[in-house]
Amino acid sequence: MTNDDSATLPAPVAVAARTGPAARGGVLLAALGVVAFSLSFPATRWALEGFGVWSISGVRCVLAAVLAAAGLLAARVPFPERRHRPGLLVVSVGCVLGFPFLSTLALRTTSTSHAAVVIGALPLATAAFAALRTGRRPSRAFWLGALGGAAAVTAFTLLHGDGTPGVGDLCLVGALLLCAAGYAEGGRLSAVLPGWQVMAWALVAALPVTVPVAAVALAAEPVRWSGHALLGLGWLAAVAQFGGFVLWYRGMAAIGVARGSQLQLAQPLLTLVWAALLLGEGVPAAAPVTAVAVLACIAVTQRARS
């Protein structure tokens, strides 16, 4: 069964597939994935205290791939079928190579809180990619909720910054688009492959790129060992780059890519909280109002008919 088979099932069965206990469990898993991802930018900021951009981007993916490969070997998972490999490459390029490097590069020139709200458009982009890829068309109410959430975080971004995009913002937009494509494709594949295997194979597929990058970067970029730097890098590798994706893809497989993606509207606001608690960054006055608006939009997208 694929992520879109509910469109061909009888109406009661299709509804049950999206509203029963499995769907509620899927919402919980996807929400836990969002919490894991919300710590990515603060963890990256910590990692930048001791490592360079290329070192972080390469090492986090290599370490995550080691964990993934160990899991694949322990479970004796066969190689993915040929028909799944193009999709796995999309996940690899978007979520393993593109997003880590571009987001880390952006955080050298922009604050964690600013980066978090720019990435707030990720749910809408993911839903759009999923609609294009699968042909499923969410309802008008869903799109209104998704657009409302994207508008809220966009307005917050402009109010929080100076209204003018910089180099960091351009990097974040590139990271957003690549990640959205990887999320949509990974969510689709997780309906036919276990979610952890989707990310595991994507990480392993990127090793021919990430291993040389990590080796060269560690030799060329200065390294300053510190507790913050190691903790940040460890979180990025074990949780943000692998464990969080296991929860995220499994959740999206249960409730659908479009619906699951909208839970990530809460991620920028969670990141703002972590940035304040862990990095000492100030929380903008508009954050509570934005939080209420975003939560309302999430509620609309979760209740909307698929």
Number of domains: 1
Strand content: under 5%
Q: Please identify the structural class as seen in this structure.
A: mainly alpha
Shape: globular
Number of helices: 15
Give the topology string: H per helix, E per strand.
HHHHHHHHHHHHHHH
Helix content: over 70%
What oligomeric state do these chains adopt?
A: single chain
Q: Which radius of gyration do the C-alpha atoms yield?
A: 19 Å
Major sheet characteristics: none
The overall average pLDDT, rounded, is: 81
Distance between the termini: 17 Å
Low-confidence stretches: 1-18
Count of strand segments: 0
Q: What does the model show?
A:
It contains 15 helices and no strands. The chain has helices at residues 11-19, 21-38, 40-47, 53-74, 85-106, 112-118, 122-134, 140-160, 167-189, 195-205, 207-220, 227-255, 257-261, 267-279, 287-303. The protein is globular, with a radius of gyration of 19 Å.
Quick description:
This protein is mainly alpha-helical and 306 residues long. It contains 15 helices and no strands.
What's the arrangement of secondary structure elements?
Elements lengths: L10 H9 L1 H18 L1 H8 L5 H22 L10 H22 L5 H7 L3 H13 L5 H21 L6 H23 L5 H11 L1 H14 L6 H29 L1 H5 L5 H13 L7 H17 L3
Helix pairs in contact: 1-2, 2-12, 2-14, 3-12, 3-14, 4-5, 4-10, 4-11, 4-12, 5-9, 5-10, 6-14, 7-8, 7-9, 8-15, 9-12, 10-12
